[in-house]
Design goal:
Blueprint (H helix, E strand, L loop, with lengths): L1 E4 L4 H12 L5 E4 L10 H4 L9 E4 L2 E4 L1 H12 L1 H4 L4 H30 L6 H19 L12 H6 L27 H15 L3
Parallel strand pairs: 1-2
Antiparallel strand pairs: 1-3, 3-4
Helix pairs in contact: 1-3, 5-6, 6-8
Length: 203
């Protein structure tokens, strides 16, 4: 099994985390986006979108982090990480939708605007990201896990942008009068406790 990734990529981190939680080993091959390796013919033959991560599981090539997570969970994780019953699967998938919307177009976009100097509307990205954080905080105020009251790929999908101790680039301490990433902020504390639980894995 081989994972084409980039260490700074939150999408790649999701897959490395899930591989570790499943007890799977994969050869890691770094794709240097700065030098344009993702636009080279050999990589585009793996992923025509030219994005990391890409998983090659003994000839089965999967790209896009949610798709890879679903593949790994279904093939190697049994019912633990992605259930097959309609209600359970839907509950997990609705949190993946948060990852693909508020996280991607909010938190992740604000990060690349600040860290990599990419063009974009930082204020809009911050607002959308904070909206997503609010949804997460509301859920985690009453539950230890995002879906089904147990760890699933939903938790791994939303973990990378709220790892413990990491101040979110692009999200100032005060935004619209709210301390979004202050260590004293109760919502942030809940997210950090949740992140530690995900990293520890199921007991």
């Amino acid at each position: 099994m081989k994972l084409y990734d980039l260490e700074l990529s939150g999408n790649s981190y999701r897959i490395r985390l899930l591989l570790a939680l499943l007890g799977l080993k994969a050869e890691l091959q770094t794709v240097n986006l700065i030098h344009g390796e993702n636009r080279k013919e050999w990589f585009l033959s793996l992923n025509p979108r030219g994005q990391v991560p890409v998983l090659d599981d003994h000839g089965v090539v999967i790209w896009d982090s949610p798709a890879i997570m679903v593949y790994l969970a279904r093939k190697y994780g049994g019912e633990q990480w992605l259930p097959t019953d309609a209600r359970g699967m839907a509950e997990v998938m609705q949190w993946l939708a948060v990852m693909e919307n508020e996280t991607l177009f909010g938190l992740a976009r604000a990060r690349v605007i600040c860290k990599f100097k990419r063009p974009g509307n930082l204020e809009e990205a911050q607002a959308l990201g904070n909206k997503g954080l609010g949804v997460l905080e509301q859920r985690l105020a009453q539950h230890d896990w995002l879906a089904l009251d147990r760890p699933t790929i939903a938790d791994g999908a939303l973990l990378p942008l709220r790892r413990p101790g990491a101040r979110r680039r692009g999200f100032p301490r005060s935004l619209s009068g709210r301390a979004e990433v202050d260590s004293a902020h109760q919502g942030a504390a809940r997210l950090r406790r949740h992140a530690r639980g995900v990293a520890a894995g199921p007991r």
